[in-house]
Design brief:
The protein is an alpha/beta fold and about 400 residues long. It is about 45% helix and about 10% strand. It has one domain (about 10-305): TIM Barrel (Alpha-Beta Barrel), CATH 3.20.20.150. It is built from 14 helices and eleven strands. It has a six-stranded parallel beta sheet. Strands 1-2-3 form a three-stranded parallel beta sheet. Strands 6-8 form a two-stranded antiparallel ribbon. Helix 4 links the parallel strand 4 (about 85-90) and strand 5 (about 135-140). The chain is globular. The protein starts with a helix and ends in a 9-residue tail after the last helix. Bound molecules: alpha-D-psicofuranose and manganese (II) ion (MN). The site of manganese (II) ion has 5 residues, from loops. Manganese (II) ion binds near residues 140 and 180.
Length: about 400
Amino acid sequence: MPLVGEILDFQVAIPSWALGAGGTRFGRFSTGGEPANLEQKIEDVGLLHALTHSAGAISLHIPWDIPSDPSATREQAASLGIAFDAVNSNTFQDQPGQAFSYKFGSLCHTSEGARRQAIDHNLQVIEIGQQLGSKSITVWLADGASFPGQLNFRRALDHTRNALQEIYSALPDDWRLFIEYKPYEPNFYSMVVQDWGTSFHLAQACGEKAFTLVDLGHHLPNTNIEQIVSTLISLGKLGGFHFNDSKYGDDDLTVGSIKPYQLFLIFNELVYGMKNNTAGNPPLAWMIDASHNLKDPLEDLLQSLEAIRIAYVQALLVDQRALANAQLEGDVALCQEILHAAYRTDVRPILREARRVKGAALDPFLFYRQQEVRNQLIRERGSKTVATGL
Ligand code: PSV
Ligand code: MN
């Protein structure tokens, strides 16, 4: 079957914080059987990978996931075929015993001591990542202001740039630095790294191993994300992706649950960009960054993994030559027909075949339900377990 080969190597990292039931700021409803420690989180990713053969990596958040014995953690992951994707730093929460508070920011803070502490934390995250075999760090900053006048924009950006440059200078040669952006939340008037342009500027100021990371939920409604993707790849500065879906803001819903056509259009630009990679953009880091409080988190991740692969295969089906011709002719209706022909193709048999080739479950979601995996986890781990993290 065509295309099966192209998707066999397509792996998406699972974030450690999506394995437990998520919450909103109003409530959290445990499903039971959630992983209570790093070992159990890796077990869960191993299960997802065994079922799908598409979740071969985990992304850790420090300090939520500090390994007590890194080589044992590494061995456990390797035995399940799991690699360590980007490590994520956390300067958006205060930790017990820390000298300075991040209430008014971290890398942008007016206090040199707070900035130093946040930089040192990122350096420690790189060290932990090195012990595990990660090759990248993702920095997302909650820094910003909720009221006009609270922050001097220019000074905040200068501090952030200087701090990121210092973190970048400690980056091992074979590592990459990903800089995430977000227009609002938790700050509601301004965020220091508010958009892809600011992230791009910071990545440029750091150097060739620094890249912009696009989180689908980090855009104002109706933003043309596929166009951002196209621009960043053409500049050679797209580092990776955090997949989720949303109706209004950073809703962190299951990938493809609200706007599957947008997801397809994004993949169309990714596929086109990577096949016409004139700026030498390195391979992208793919990760799911979704979490909410209604579904079984593992079922939710299975649905997200499937949605990502469906959009990817559909994008591979776009007749790029015909599309280019139709664009040359100014045949707008035909351009739409070509995109829709790919988008409306049922590619699930291709995914099933890819899983069969790799010995994974033909229908992972159904298998998970039939085997009553959640009940097994509840029996093993208890019904009141609470995942660490968000
Ligand atoms: C922030 O909204 C974000 O997308 C960043 O990637 C964080 O690291 C992650 O969510 C978890 O808080
Ligand atoms: Mn994210």
